């Protein structure tokens, strides 16, 4: 595509301002002239071949252009009779450089904002800039639009007309028709009219559509008054600030394209979503915040990168008050809609504007996402993620999974509330549920080989980190092997409880005989496990049963500090009371002496406490230990009963997942 800039005119209405150079060399800002701005914007749009017609001050203009540091190639075509002719003749002089080309045609005294030129250059059809909101000028161009097409351009048309500016994109099939007409006009000596007069005769054979710039800047400078108005408008345009937010850690061409478009609108600030926000919203980020920030800082056109701590833009919009927020139009439906509505209302409160560009995820993007997920499921990456998630969020949640299907549910379930997204951060492989799924009691009867099989089934279809319920850990001599196996598989944490002998589920409490291990022997088991592990990411958590076995708070705390000393990376404190006060008391007393060691709770009984409260009190992992299993059992019993009651399955259909959905529940690998 070539640009054709018409600079042969004398610009006499500018008075002294054009006494030594052509009008296009008039300064419109402290940094730029009309022409240097046009050339810079063309180069930004990738239009680097320019044909420029010259007339008055020909050599001044040529020398000026040669001195500009703008990457464009200019062919100068002089109109030797510029005084006696209009620009129709200048185009005629340049015709050999222009035929069979897509052209961006502009007058040399036009000032427009970046994205106006962007829209023109990228228009898939021939177009002329018009404004549906600006008043019709008395003496300047108007375009007559019929059935969506421009049928005539000139100063005398007022019916069905829009204010129009001589900035065109002309596809070669339309341009050739117009150029032929220009040629005919000039060869018949009709050289004192507008080139548009020639267009008006052939407009039936061209398809030039109006491109509505509305209030955006796109104006000619004819006289010193215009210069003042346009320069002031340009100042405002150049001071405009634009804001966008990104959650991505994989940049692709779609992102770059939308960033380029946003940067055309003004100084671009990019909000990078914090790790904490991103981990709840999408998936664990492959690159941490600091690296994602650097990635955006190095993109051309980005002026500043700031952190956005939540999915909601409100805090940052109120802080930075951008004139424009840019986003893809994909957020006008689905869970992001409330976020979008909030952005629109905050912008409206101070007169900002929302600009939405068409955006659709393409196959390449989906492929990148798939690769990211595969990477996240690899043992080294998955193992390290629990520690990282705790560091990012302070408090993480884990949900029980006991097979591939429940793993997928934990992996994929998301709750959207007011534009926020919530997901589980990790998976808990419960001894209770793993045993129950096999119809066995929770007494360490299901052996490690079988438990590892469960882990493997879950790992195969998920990416989230895994916390493994290691029961008592067994004999110290066996535990060291368990640690190595778990670590190798990519498990992040094993929790072992300070019990010995025949283990029973803690929720039985003192109803059954349960023996607590002594501090020394359990400490030795922890120390042996820590010595056995190979990576720094794997964690061994000591679970204290003193409250379950009613041995008192002092005993629980003494054990906790001893186990930390023995090397435990985290402490789980358990209780089977509905009232959370003993858990709170433990957390408070523990935190008074140890601010760092992560604390874990399993609020099966004390289930009224919300995650925010645990977080505020200093708990780092909240495990929902058995809810998926407990939800499935009554549902299955109910279905079985209904079929027996009715001697057929029809009645039970209403409580079942539709057949069509169950066969699509599990995505197939391609
Ligand atoms: C499990 O889920 O197996 C546990 C937690 O160990 S609890 O059942 O509460 O003891
Ligand atoms: Mg258990």
Description:
The protein is α/β, with parallel strands linked by helices and 670 residues long. The protein folds into 4 domains: 2-235, Spore Coat Polysaccharide Biosynthesis Protein SpsA, Chain A (Alpha-Beta Complex); 240-364, HUPs (Rossmann fold); 386-625, Alpha-Beta Barrel (TIM Barrel); 631-665, no CATH class. The protein contains 24 helices and 28 strands. The chain is elongated. The chain binds sulfopyruvate (SPV) and magnesium ion. Sulfopyruvate binds at residues 430-432, 442, 469, 505-507, 602, 604, 625-626.
Q: What shape does the CA trace take? A: elongated
Please count the beta strands (DSSP E, at least 2 residues each). 28
The proportion of strand residues reads 15-25%
What's the CATH superfamily of the largest domain, by name? Phosphoenolpyruvate-binding domains
Domain count: the total is: 4
Q: Describe the biggest sheet? A: 9 strands, mixed
Task: Give the N-to-C terminal Cα separation.
Answer: 41 Å
Radius of gyration: 36 Å
Q: What is CATH's topology name of the largest domain? A: TIM Barrel
Bound molecules: sulfopyruvate, magnesium ion
Number of helices: 24
Q: What does the average pLDDT come to?
A: 93
- In helices, the fraction of residues equals 40-55%
**Can you tell me the CATH architecture of the largest domain?**
Alpha-Beta Barrel
Low-confidence stretches: none
CATH hierarchy class name of the largest domain: Alpha Beta
């Amino acid at each position: 595509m070539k640009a054709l800039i018409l600079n042969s005119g004398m610009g006499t209405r500018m008075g002294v301002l054009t006494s030594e150079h052509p009008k296009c060399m008039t300064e419109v800002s402290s940094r730029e002239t009309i022409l240097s701005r046009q050339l810079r914007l063309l180069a930004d749009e990738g239009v680097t071949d320019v044909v420029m017609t010259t007339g008055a001050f020909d050599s001044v203009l040529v020398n000026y252009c040669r001195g500009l540091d703008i990457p464009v190639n200019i062919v100068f075509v002089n109109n030797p009779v510029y005084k006696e002719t209009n620009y129709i003749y200048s185009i005629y002089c340049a015709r050999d450089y222009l035929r069979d080309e897509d052209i961006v045609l502009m007058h040399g005294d036009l000032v427009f904002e970046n994205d106006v030129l962007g829209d023109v250059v990228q228009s898939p059809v021939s177009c002329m800039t018009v404004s549906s909101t600006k008043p019709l000028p008395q003496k300047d161009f108007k375009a007559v639009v019929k059935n969506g097409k421009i049928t005539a351009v000139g100063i005398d048309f007022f019916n069905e007309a829009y204010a129009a500016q001589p900035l065109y994109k002309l596809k070669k099939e339309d341009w050739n028709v117009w150029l032929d007409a220009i040629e005919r006009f000039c060869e018949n000596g009709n050289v004192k009219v507008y080139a548009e007069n020639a267009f008006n005769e052939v407009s039936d054979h061209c398809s030039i559509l109006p491109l509505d710039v509305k209030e955006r800047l796109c104006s000619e400078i004819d006289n010193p008054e215009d210069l003042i108005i346009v320069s002031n408008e340009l100042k405002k345009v150049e001071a405009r600030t634009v804001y966008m937010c990104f959650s991505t850690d994989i940049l692709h061409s779609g992102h770059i394209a939308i960033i380029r478009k946003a940067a055309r609108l003004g100084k671009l600030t990019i909000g990078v979503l914090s790790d904490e926000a991103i981990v709840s919203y999408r998936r664990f980020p492959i690159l941490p915040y600091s690296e994602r920030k650097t990635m955006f800082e190095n993109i051309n056109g980005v002026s500043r990168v700031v952190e956005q701590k939540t999915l909601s833009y409100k805090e940052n919009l109120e802080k930075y008050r951008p004139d424009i927020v840019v986003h893809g139009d994909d957020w006008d439906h689905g869970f992001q809609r409330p976020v979008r509505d909030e952005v629109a209302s905050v912008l409206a409160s101070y007169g900002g504007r929302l600009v939405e560009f068409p955006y659709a995820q393409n196959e390449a993007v989906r492929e990148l996402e798939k690769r990211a997920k595969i990477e996240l499921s690899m043992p080294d990456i998955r193992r390290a993620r629990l520690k990282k998630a705790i560091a990012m969020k302070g408090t993480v949640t884990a949900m029980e999974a006991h097979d591939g299907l429940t793993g997928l549910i934990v992996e994929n379930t998301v709750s959207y509330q007011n534009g926020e997204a919530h997901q589980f951060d990790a998976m808990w492989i419960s001894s209770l549920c793993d045993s129950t799924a096999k119809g066995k009691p929770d007494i360490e009867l299901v052996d490690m080989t079988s438990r590892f099989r469960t882990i493997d089934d879950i790992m195969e279809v998920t990416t989230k980190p895994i916390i493994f319920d290691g029961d008592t850990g067994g004999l110290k001599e066996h535990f060291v092997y368990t640690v190595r196996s778990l670590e190798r598989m990519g498990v992040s944490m094993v929790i072992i409880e300070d019990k010995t002998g025949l283990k029973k589920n803690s929720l039985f409490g003192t109803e059954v005989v349960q023996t607590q291990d002594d501090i020394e022997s359990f400490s030795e088991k922890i120390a042996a496990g820590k010595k056995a592990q190979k990576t720094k990411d794997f964690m061994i958590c000591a679970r204290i049963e003193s409250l379950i076995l009613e041995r008192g708070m002092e005993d629980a705390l003494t054990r906790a500090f001893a186990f930390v000393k023995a090397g435990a990376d985290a402490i789980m404190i358990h209780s089977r009371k509905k009232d959370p006060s003993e858990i709170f008391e433990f957390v408070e007393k523990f935190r008074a002496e140890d601010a760092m060691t992560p604390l874990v709770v399993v609020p099966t009984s004390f289930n009224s406490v919300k995650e925010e409260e645990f977080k505020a009190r200093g708990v780092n992992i909240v495990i929902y230990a058995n809810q998926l299993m407990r939800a499935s059992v009554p549902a299955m019993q109910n279905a079985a009963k209904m079929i027996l009651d009715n001697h057929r399955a029809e009645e039970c259909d209403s409580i079942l997942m539709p057949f069509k959905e169950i066969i699509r529940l599990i995505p197939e690998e391609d």
